[in-house]
Amino acid sequence: MSLIVQARNIERIYGSGNNAVQALSDINLTVQQNQLVALKGRSGSGKTTLLNIIGALDYPTNGSVIFGGVDILTLSEKERILHRKENIGFIFQSFGLVPLMTVEENVEFGLRIAGVPKQEWTKRINESIDLVQLSKRAKHRPFELSGGEQQRCAIARAIATRPKLILADEPTGELDTKTAFHVMKVFRELVASKQTTIIMTTHDPAMMEITDHVYALEDGKIVEKEESSIT
Ligand SMILES: Nc1ncnc2c1ncn2[C@@H]1O[C@H](COP(=O)(O)OP(=O)(O)OP(=O)(O)O)[C@@H](O)[C@H]1O
């Protein structure tokens, strides 16, 4: 097994002076390739901030993030954009779907941005939409979908590009229990087939059970790392 992500001594302070908020401090975390890892913690404990930093969407105040052996803080802005495009799939709470595009067009848009060859598109679109059980809604636009369906569309878009790493902020938060378990099963299959590594946040202990490791965050610090019973 080899390391895909290593966060070293991460600190993130928002603002300055009296308004400074210490969102993260002394974060050390290592994630092996083809694992499914969860971050848990109360609201405001720093989970999203950490995902943003690992995903090269934000800079830590101190510390470094190593991705596949490269310190991403040494990359230029252009290289960071390319790194995100080529290596990372994001499933975030705002979903980031394009309102005027149907489910399949949104997934296609993700493939186009990631630079996946055009001849692959149809297969990948059908496969990923089918995996999240959204085929019946493939021709619908986001405003015609429920919150959970929009979330599954965002998941389909992220998995279609087969990124090395998927960062998912509460990916099952909008889903009913049955659908949430189905999505976790899809995540496990992707990880088992060695297609990807997934770091997700969740509040749900039942979802944590399905992961390889759970990191617990409290006030911006990792307080425990649990091995899941599944592996
Ligand atoms: N842009 C910002 N400016 C100032 N403070 C911020 C900013 N973003 C987050 N914070 C603060 O940083 C801390 C960590 O926030 P973060 O969103 O990472 O928590 P979280 O664990 O993801 O919470 P939730 O489960 O509610 O999404 C919180 O105290 C939050 O108020």
TrEMBL record:
Any single Gene Ontology cellular-component annotation: membrane protein complex
Residues passing through the membrane, by range: none
Keywords: ATP-binding, Nucleotide-binding, Transport
Tagged with keyword Transport: yes
Pfam family name, one: ABC_tran
SMART domains membership: AAA
Official protein name in the record: ABC transporter ATP-binding protein
Natural source organism: Aquibacillus salsiterrae
